[in-house]
Amino acid sequence: MKSPGIKKIRWVLKPMVHGLSLIPFVMMVFGLINHTLGPNPAETLSHVSGEWGLRFLLITLTVTPLVRLTKSGWITGFRRLLGLYCFFYVFVHFLIYLILDLSLDFGFLAEDIFDRPYITVGFLGLVILAMLAITSPISIRQKMGRDWDSLHQFIYLAGILGIVHFLWITKADDTEPMMYGFVFLLLIGWRLVRKIGKNTSRPLT
Q1: Cα angle vertex 35, ends 32, 37, to 5°?
Q2: Given 69, 81, 126, 203, which is the most exposed site by the fewest CB atoms within 10 A?
Q3: What pLDDT, in 10s, does the model give residues 142-157?
Q4: How far apart are CA 34 and CA 45, in angstroms?
């Protein structure tokens, strides 16, 4: 049972997390309205939304190590919220592409998905994140039982697809996607080391 102090902390921090998470979106809308997105607004919006989607995915994956290192279990309560913002920004990224680049032409969308590998991996990542977002409510988790845990392991695949997508669309300097890839590998590596440590610490029977 959560202590009143922890509930109060979460009650205070949750609006702050919402506010901070929405700042990039507000800045995108502000830039669009005020024409401050440069000569190619569609490209700017696509880049910013996609990058923030990837950032929120990495932030979401950082929650578990942070909980383990600080022994602050209440932080776990923000993981679902951060994961939903990851999906939100990736979905905005997709809508910008669909509306501004394809003019809502679903025929062109289907062609791009099948003909352009970077679109294929990006779309697969979106589908995975959509499934994770849909199944994130507590009521659905309870109904799915252990299947929910299995499904949500796909967030790692979504991370790989997102980084590959970013790497393939980068025309010149690939420093940014490589940096995200490095952080992703660190987060995966931490989990693998911890899992191996647990297995080796078990007594032989």
Answers
A1: 70
A2: 203
A3: 899 889 889 999 999 9
A4: 13
Contact 122, 90 (CB under 8 A): no
Domain residue spans in the chain? 4-201
**Amino acid letter for position 14:** K
What is the distance between the alpha carbons of residues 21 and 44, in angstroms, rounded to a whole number? 19
In the structure encoding, which two tokens stand for residue 205, read together? 């029977």
Alpha helices in 39-154 (DSSP H): 41-70, 79-96, 106-115, 117-134, 138-144, 146-152
Sequence-separated (6 or more) residues with CB below 8 Å from residue 157: 125, 128
- Please name the amino acid found at residue 156: Y
The confidence score (pLDDT) of residue 4 equals 61
Distance CA 83, CA 53 (A): 9
CA angle (136 as vertex; 128, 168 as ends), nearest 5: 25
Per residue in 41-76, is it b (16+ CB within 10 Å) or e — as a string?
beebbbbbbbbbbbbbbbbbbbbbeebeeeeeeebe
